[in-house]
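On to my pick:
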Amino acid sequence: MLFQKHNIIVLTLISLFLNTKSLAQEGINANTFYKHDKYLSSDKMEGRFPGTKQNNKAAKYIKKYFKKNDLSSYDNSYYQPFKLFVKADINKMISDTVITQNVVGYIEGSDSVSKKEFIVIGAHYDHWGWGGQGSGSKRKDTIAIHNGADDNASGVAALLSILEEISHLKTKPKRSIIFIAFSGEEQGLIGSNYFVNHLPVSKEKVKLMINMDMVGRLNANKHLYMGGAGTFPDGVALMKELGNNTGLNLIVHAGEVGGSDHVSFYKKNISSIGFHTGGHPQYHTPEDDIDLINSEGGAIVSKYIFNALLRIANYDQPLYFINQD
């Protein structure tokens, strides 16, 4: 009997340890960020080119975490499929028209009135596959897997980390939040353009879009760049305030909305802010690999964006578009 009790105690302690360890790996931390980035940018994903099995596999991975963290879906599906034209012979594609998909889910807000308004947070998950002529690769004479660890597995890693953190909150933000992973960004913001023209909610109810594109290479100076902070009320002041005690060196632009998926929203007069940690020589080359990702920095950036998302989703004042052209 004593031996049996001892075994029960040992098994209970092991279970508590494993559960605690499991919880410690969730949410925003370097391990979670690295886990997502490593999977999406591994060689087996072959650069996540739209229309390929690997792009679909990446979408399935993102969908798994959307479901795991209790995101609701629209029309009983997390996928928003759309067609994409591909130039001849890029990435060994046979057809010039392929089908890919955005991955979309949402969390309903906690306030009976404010939940009718939506904040969108997103990142694109596609990249240039094997590169080559006709692609956006900087090495057009080289056929090799473009893993896109920073561009933009890092943005999706941040998105999923933020989602996991929000799923742990006892009280959800006042406004509803749409989480989206875009495909077709590299071909000209195709996925985000499709989404903003086929919104699952009224356009007037979408109050802000937060975009993360290349947030995995925080440098020694801890530069975090953002454009579009002036497109919503008190945005510049808020972004600067949130930088206090983070160690981040913020470069905050009221305008300079930039060239990633948030531009699709800005062109529709929806407030938009985009985050990135800066360019580098590995951009759009086969060398953009996981070994160069700063996971600790990615976690710091993700935490900052998480705090910005919460503050904006809980804004007491009205949110409206401010043109910065």
